[in-house]
Amino acid sequence: MAYDDYIRKRFFPHIWCPGCGHGIVLNALTRSLDSLGFDKNEMVMVSGIGCSARISGYVDLHSMHTIHGRALAFATGIKLSRPELKLIVPMGDGDALAIGGNHFIHAARRNIDITAIVINNRIYGMTGGQYSPLSGVGVRATTAPYSNIDPAFDVVEMATAAGATFVARTTTYHVREMSKFFQKAILHKGFSVVEVLSQCPTNFGRRNKAGDAVHMMESYKNGTVVAGSADDVPGSGKIRRGVFVEKTAPEYCDEYARIIRVARKGA
Amino acid sequence: MKNKTAFIQGNEVCARAAIYAGVGFFAGYPITPSTEIAEFMARELPKRQGTFIQMEDEISSLCAVIGASLTGCKAMTATSGPGFSLMQEALGYAVMAEIPCVIVDVQRGGPSTGLPTHVMQGDVCQARWGIHGDHAIVAMTASGNQELFKITVDAFNIAETYRTPVILLLDIPSEGEIEVVERLRTAVKQGVDFHPYLPREDGRLPMSDFGGVHRYNVTGLFHDMWGFPSDDPQVVHGLLRHLADKINNNVDNIARFKEYYLDDADLVLVSYGSSARSALHLVESRRRRGEKYGLLELQTLWPFPHSIVREKCANARYVAVVEMNLGQITKEVKEAVDRPERVYLLNRIDGVYITPTDIRNMLRVIQGRGV
Amino acid sequence: MMAKKQTKAKHVINREWCKGCGICVHFCPGNVLELDEWFKCFAARPDDCVGCRLCELRCPDFAIQVVVQSKQDQVA
Ligand SMILES: Cc1ncc(C[n+]2csc(CCOP(=O)(O)OP(=O)(O)O)c2C)c(N)n1
Ligand code: SF4
Ligand code: SF4
Ligand code: SF4
Known about the structure:
Chain A has 267 residues and is of the alpha/beta class.
């Protein structure tokens, strides 16, 4: 199969703005799926609401476009009742960590075998540019016209603290790395999180003088560093990329299967 | 696109009116087509020492609004269908704890994510019965920007007067001297027992701000006159009666409506929100041809003004309700009038504004004249 | 002198899908690509292509594909 066998071509061109990072994430994801070679019928994609959440409509997998913030909760239901399915949940930063923050930490805590992709464009794209919990102090948004005072989460630290057993960060510039991380995350048994720094040229770039898609991707190239590399020195001011957590811990569906065995033995 | 501009205007009018009414706190979560209200508040409230916060979702938004109201400021939030659904639990809390606040629901096509940028009037019954448990509720609407300003101020006034949340249902997203009601605060002095939940003779309950001299309990459980949880059957009965009566006994005071050419009308259109504008357009063109059409435009939907509707429709041969849903208000109108078989529903449910031509065509059908 | 290029590449561009964002143009190491007057991508200097496929990997719109043929393929 070729990578573009994983998209639903009849819905193209897609709805995203020119240069939107969501398309690059979809592109890398289809290549990861192609390399992994799973049967399409074994894969389910669940998303919430937002520009990023529209990804689920474009992949030729079992796909579910749900309600804002709750994708992981829907996915938990699917995974628990059919543990053999592979679950991929792409989310915007608002979807994942504002309205969906609670579900995010609890899915991580349970270490349920789902791959969460947080596409972090630091803004609410779909509703026209309001600040998100990942915008960070000093950013301008339509609801922060005098500049934002809300500090941002660090997705990697938060996912780690909550119990995710695979945590990585990459950007839309680093496409080969992104594809590699997606593959590792999907193969990982347990809750895996990949944060992808991604550009929203329309609602973040313009308002914050960050330029167009090309400029924003240049900033990912120059403003990030591979964790553990020679350039990764404290105080570099650069955002660290890489796989930060990769460990094994009891997976939720396995644990539940064990409970079933225990319960049936008792019966 | 046309819908969107209308929304932006209406949202801004609503936001300006809220400022005029003295809103001091806004908490919300972005959602089309209501976001302009939040954006307006983010710009304007800090200039007036007011507070704006974008919360992590709609649940927390209404919770923050209720908290702010308890400190003594007029507080509001704005949302659309999915967010309004999330607010129902906190809305019930505001009813139970009798916290004045205003919740704006700029209606989109639903259910679920539905039609974010198109209009419908589908949340009318949700406004009435979205929260669990018996209760009375106030929900208002307007058909144009001018009335919207007045109705928004009225919403704050009714919230303060009856110590209740008020829902403002917008679908058009829509001057003179308008009275602004201030919160009724208790005159009870420090050190004297204050009963936050003991109604005065007129049914109103003076409040005391959190941070002030009276410390009292606020709860979503049934509670006594001190606000302390109680399941004493008498207390429960009394509180539920009070919560319903303070609204239902004031239907005529809370009702806002407009009437056009009703005196001699033999065909009365009943409508609200943007559909009322199309209805008025049709009524006026028919009047110019000498046909006796009239319009009753409802601005308060809940509590439903049954007696007003009965009276205004008493002499009509036909009553036609124009709305953009499957008949949420038609049902109430049938209940209000003496001869429900004369009441017809004229609707559109495809996310497109109902036009005077649509209404005319549907009327021809019910009058047996063909289209 | 050694031949400059090891590969011969064909650039398949879907003009219906290309939105002219310029990402492929800007990041191409061989400066192969340009946008035309309709803001659609085209291969202006295909012979300079090094076959890295980064344009294809970074295109948000699945609008460009690079078909790389090795020298041997060409002979055969
Ligand atoms: C309950 C509810 N509240 C609000 C919305 C409106 N809404 C749709 S998408 C969105 C946020 C989008 O931002 P993000 O999740 O970061 O994704 P992006 O669009 O940037 O990809 C919001 C607030 C909604 N659909 N449902
Ligand atoms: S608004 Fe931003 S996030 Fe949404 S499609 Fe456009 S560029 Fe992408
Ligand atoms: S990256 Fe893709 S969409 Fe952008 S200009 Fe190149 S071919 Fe067109
Ligand atoms: S394959 Fe590489 S060198 Fe060739 S056009 Fe694409 S980006 Fe340029």
